[in-house]
Amino acid sequence: MKKIFTFAALLCATWMNAQGVYQIPNSDFETWASDKEPGNGWNSFNSARTDDLGGFIGSIAKGQSPNPQKVEGYNGTVGVKLYSKSIVGAKANGNLTTGKINMGSTTPSNAKNYNYTDLSSGAHSLQFAGTPDAVSCMAKFKSGGSPNGRGQFILHDKYDYKDPETSNEAGYENHKIALAAIVIPETSDWKYFEAKFDYTGNVAPAGEQYMLASFTTNPTPGGSANDELILDDIRLIYYSELASLNYDGQDYFQQGNTNYTIDALYDESKLTCTSNGKGATIEKSYDEASAVLTITVKGNDFSVNSSNVHTYKVQFAKPQPVVTEYENDLVVTINDQSMPSQPAKIQLIKEIDGTTSLALNNFTLGSGAEAIPVGNIKLTNLEIVEGKIQTTQTITITAGDNPEAIGPFLGEIPVTLNATIIGEDKMEAVIDIPFTLMNMIIKVTFAETQTYTDGQALSLNAGLTNIAYNRTFSEGWSTICLPFTTPVVAFGENATSVQELISADENGLNFDEVEVLEANKPYLIYFKAAKETPTYFGTEITSTTPVSVTKGDYTFVGSYDAVMSMSGKYGIATIDDVQKIILGGANSTLKATRAYFTKQGEQPAQVRINLYGEGGNGTTGIGQVDNGAAQTYDVYTLQGVQVLKGATSLNGLQKGIYIVNGKKVVINK
Questions:
Q1: In terms of Cα–Cα distance, which of 285, 289, 294, 377 is closest to 330?
Q2: Which of 14, 413, 443, 664 is least buried, going by the fewest C-beta atoms within 10 A?
Q3: What is 443-468 written as a DSSP string?
């Protein structure tokens, strides 16, 4: 068993030498070169230099010197005993060193007696890679008159350094890197001793640092003749713990604590920490997902002792996305019909990973108790170019705060965003959301709401806008002119026809039906029943100048003036319950967002109107136009259960989603 241990120790020493020496070889004294000294890193009088004494005296001095002895060590292992003795009247201290002993005088206190690093001999010089913090040993000391034994450890550069230091030449201090001294008082039992290294600030070039270690029974030359110092397990110690932890000027360090919490976002430039190890290394690793900083302190000997490491965890506050919230009015348009505007918020989010997202949370179709919850719409990885954001992404709408939201059940939806950031606190946006499963095209307009009230002049700001159009339409035909493009269906189910002027001939004015009203262009519009509620639009205004339409001698012109005199102009009037195009009198007027006709040449009192294209119904009075029979409805639930058949109205249906005449329809009131 002893042989196996010795082989392992030699193998370990060889491996350490290959990696760089961090421990003194044979520091447990398990191997001995001879019965006179351990060797293998430790030397004594048997290999001393005696040139200054001469051959004869030197030979006698070496022969009479107190050579180390192999004894039982700590915990039953092998140790070494140093002892002092008298030699021809002089007291010789026991001595053991990693260098070489120079026996230069028979007088013990002579400066020619010293231990030294012999750079010319690998057996008497210890090239050392480590930067130790302390040194320790197990020892017993029996005093024969000396106050204590001592171990002294000197790190130095490539220099024949001497111990005691007074034996060195002038300027030796420039070669000393560090020194530690273990003082060993009298003790009959094994005792642990430790001493710290004191560093001078000098540094050796790579590969040129040496350790000169020496043990003696008395630090004073020529001490007592009967001292005994028994040694074992000499270890160089490399600290690997934190000594300080400071963040943003505040001290958090607690001795022995390995877990810390700092209620702040991590910023490496604000963190400082130090180790108690002179040559220790500190590694920092921050995990953004958990906001945990791992500090790993490795001792200077980590390359040969991977267990010499301490790990610390610092929990920082988890980074939160930076949210900029924009407030504006929201108009929801379903299949070209818009709901009243409502206050809303859109968030622009700077995510933790540096990307940008946009969120419209808890989106609903409608408002109040009748609203149908849809959920959260979030678009990610956005690019902002000169304040504009444009993207189309296929997303799944999440439920948001309402577990009954319909968004998650709609599957993946291609959402298109066009947004503009205006200044620091304003955003305008249009979000297109096709609910294919429900046969619905949703458009969300996030913009300022402008209100037009009948009787006022039209004064609307250009750009993206929501409009509350407060104009009452009577049953029958009216003229209309708006500064934005809009489909006919935006006016609701009672608006059954819009006609544009296409020509004029001897038979009168010819109109044809259109599906979309162009911006600033005049039209005729028919309501099968009076409309008294406002109409809402989410739209874009580029111009507020009416466009005239001239056909032959007739011109159809829109007006945005609050009140316009109709004297000499043609407009729609009701006479004897019949609507006609007639020449206005001196007191007749026209309000804004309407239109009138003018004619060059002869001014007839009435003008014949032909609707639905040239060769249409050929009526002479608008009131005589037959607008068709009432529409009927067959209504089913999404599960295929029929709830109405041949109905003339959807009134009475509960809030929900139905199949009406083969198309999905949302009933929100």
A1: 377
A2: 14
A3: EEEEE-EEEEETTSPP---SEEEEEE
The owner of tokens 């690998």 is 122
CB distance 90 to 224 below 8 Å: no
Rounded CA-CA distance 46/66 in Å is 9
CB 294 within 8 A of CB 284: yes
Q: How far apart are CA 460 and CA 543, in angstroms?
A: 9
Q: Which amino acid belongs to residue 233?
A: D
CA distance linking residue 337 with residue 346, whole number of Å? 22
Kindly report, residue by residue over 496-534, the tens digit of the pLDDT.
999 999 999 988 899 999 999 999 999 999 999 999 999
Query: For the domain 2-237, what is the CATH code?
Result: 2.60.120.890
First to last CA, the chain: 93
Quickly state the pLDDT bin for 124 (edges 50, 70, 90): very high
Write down the residue that tokens 């509620």 correspond to: 533
Which DSSP state fits 46? G
Q: Which residues contact 182 (CB under 8 A, 6 or more apart)?
A: 135, 136, 137, 139, 150, 151, 152, 153, 193, 194, 195
Question: Of 259, 256, 243, nearest to 313 (Cα)?
Answer: 259
> Exposure of 95 by Cβ count < 10 A (0-12 exposed, 13-18 middle, 19+ buried)?
buried
Looking at residue 338, the DSSP 8-state letter turns out to be: E
Show me where the domains of the chain are located: 2-237, 242-316, 324-443, 450-624, 633-667
Give me the pLDDT at residue 159, please: 97
What pLDDT shows up at residue 665?
A: 67
pLDDT for 318-377, tens place per residue?
988 999 999 999 999 999 999 999 999 999 999 988 999 999 999 999 888 888 999 999
Reduced to 3 states, what is the DSSP secondary structure of residue 533?
coil
Q: Count other Cβ atoms within 10 Å, centred on residue 497.
A: 20
Predicted pLDDT of residue 579: 76
Distances in whole angstroms, Cα of residue 596 to Cα of each of 555, 583, 644:
8, 10, 43
Q: How far is CA 625 from the centre of its chain?
A: 67
Q: With bands split at pLDDT 50, 70 and 90, how would you rate the model's confidence at 633?
A: low
Residue 179 has pLDDT above 70, yes or no: yes
Q: How far apart are CA 262 and CA 116, in angstroms?
A: 52
Provide the token pair at 266.
């991590």
Average pLDDT of the chain to the nearest whole number: 89
- The confidence score (pLDDT) of residue 13 equals 39
**Structure tokens, 623:** 């009131």
Q: Say how many residues make up the chain.
A: 669
Structure letter (DSSP) for residue 145:
S
pLDDT digits (tens, 9 = 90+) for 287-303: 988 999 999 999 999 99
Distance CA 114, CA 445 (A): 94
Rounded to whole angstroms, how far apart are CA atoms 443 and 446? 10
* CA distance to 477, 492, 535, 649, per residue, from 529 (Å): 10, 11, 15, 13
539 within 8 A of 512, measured Cβ to Cβ: no
Instruction: Report how far apart, in Å, the C-alpha atoms of 42 and of each of 137, 234, 309 are.
Output: 15, 12, 29
- The secondary structure of 594-648, three-state, reads EEEEEECCCCCCECCEECCCCCCCCCCCHHHCCCCCCCCEEEEECCCCEEEEEEC
Higher pLDDT: 87 or 540? It is 540
pLDDT, tens digit, 9 for 90 and up, residues 375-392: 999 999 999 999 999 999
Q: Which helix (H) or strand (E) holds 426?
A: strand 426-435
